[in-house]
Amino acid sequence: MLFYNIKMVMTKSFFYIKLFNFKKNIFNIFSAPEFYKTDTNGRISRAHIAVGVT
């Protein structure tokens, strides 16, 4: 039973670490300067969005 609890805690913490890293990556994408580069029409160009998402 004790081993099972430890296993659960480890998997949960691993999940939260992954989630935190994912959030951090999203923040980096949106704070990246190339994300805000606009085309001639003043819209954010799709190419730069694609670069940010990858």
Low-confidence stretches: none
Number of individual domains: 1
Mean pLDDT: 61
Helix content: over 70%
Q: Helices and strands, in N-to-C order?
A: HH
Name the beta content range. under 5%
Determine the structural class based on helices, strands and strand pairing.
Answer: mainly alpha
Q: What is the terminal-to-terminal distance?
A: 42 Å
Please compute the radius of gyration using only Cα atoms: 19 Å
Apparent shape: rod-shaped
Largest sheet: none
* Number of strand segments: 0
Number of helices: 2
List keywords for this structure.
single chain, 54 residues
Show the helix and strand layout.
Layout: H1 2-31, H2 46-53
Report on the architecture of this protein:
There is one protein chain. The chain is mostly helical. It has one domain (2-53). It is 70% helix and 0% strand. It is built from two helices and no strands. The protein has helices at 2-31, 46-53. The protein is rod-shaped. The relative contact order is 0.10. The mean pLDDT is 61.
Question: In short, what is this structure?
Answer:
This protein has helices spanning 2-31, 46-53. The protein is mainly alpha-helical and 54 residues long.
